[in-house]
Amino acid sequence: MIPVLVFDIGTVPEIAGRRKIHDLDAGVSDEQVAAMAFQRRRQAGESGDDEGKLIQRFFDGIEKYTPQIVSWNGGGFDLPVLHYRGMLHGVRAARYWDQGEDDREFKWNNYISRYHARHLDLMDLLALYQPRGAAPLDDFARLLGFPGKLGLEGSQVWQAWQDGKLAQIRSYCEADVANTYLVFLRFQLMRGVLPPDKYKQEIALVRATLEKSSEPHWKEFLEIWDAA
Fold first, then answer.
1. pLDDT in tens, 179-213
2. Which of 27, 43, 127, 147 lies at a CB distance of 3.0 to 4.6 Å from 134, suitable for a disulfide?
3. Where along the chain do its domains lie?
4. CA 58, CA 82: separation in Å to the nearest integer?
């Protein structure tokens, strides 16, 4: 079977980069710089070596396993951010960018084309590539009986970052990944890839895996799931 990698990122404005681009001096506060970034909807993340290493690990996984990658609005947001930030940090991602030059199979099914399945953007596909048909992950996951988001909204990530709540941001992203994977399983059921009994097994496996964790956010995730 083809391995599946579900992904999600959280972003904050890159203050240093914004100051450099707009030649802003120290008299402009970080909060003002961030407000400019939000207003312009600039896709960015916090600068630093750790970011580059994280992005490289993501693309290294693609290089090694050639998985199907699955996202919710990954084509519209997450991947473009990783492209720009990866280029900034000198990340290498040959397999990801292959469109048939090295592997002929990738001419017909690659990570870059919007209409290929090697990257499955669930939100984009379910909306039939129509922006007006897009649904928020939180709403749709809850509608299907899954937990939905935990704790934060995307707009709150910057404040959580400023407050040093990195664990909370990580938990927020992990919960989004879990919700996306659960929605993906339901999609596989709908399109006939998973028969009903196999779908139930996969759902049970997700629950059993999360039950093994002692992390508080997974306990909360399961409690909300039980209540739903």
1. 999 999 999 999 999 999 999 999 999 999 999 99
2. 127
3. 1-134, 135-228
4. 9
